[in-house]
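Handout, section B. The chain below has 143 residues.
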Amino acid sequence: SNDPRAGASAFITCCCAFSPIVFLGGAAGFTAENPAQAGEVIGATLGPFAYLCTLLLSTIVGCLYYIVLDSSRKQGTWGKQIVGLKVVDLQGGRLTIGRATGRCFGRYVTLLIPFFIGFLMPLFTEKKQTLHELMAGCLTVNA
């Protein structure tokens, strides 16, 4: 990401994406004897199958959000649009659905690396790219 506004965009997106999860976990924490058992309470309330279905559905919806919006004419998620950023391929063009899909799934790889190193890579890379942007051959720029 070439601009500090990318951090604001990521923050906005995370707040929107994780608010329901935090709310559900908080509600479960109130009903659990020990707040550390919140996941067990959610599982017991929803049932394991329903919990897995909810997790799968939220993952699919989240991926579609990134893939569709990053490859759209607007070239970025709502958070990026708000702060004036867009995602482009290395030639400055619009992402294909395939490249947007690679960027989305690359984000999961980035999340696996300890200490958020994959997200901090813009501080050290020439084109200011995160790990998932390097993997997908794209970058975030000013709109």
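Note. The mean pLDDT is 81. Compare this with the example in section A.
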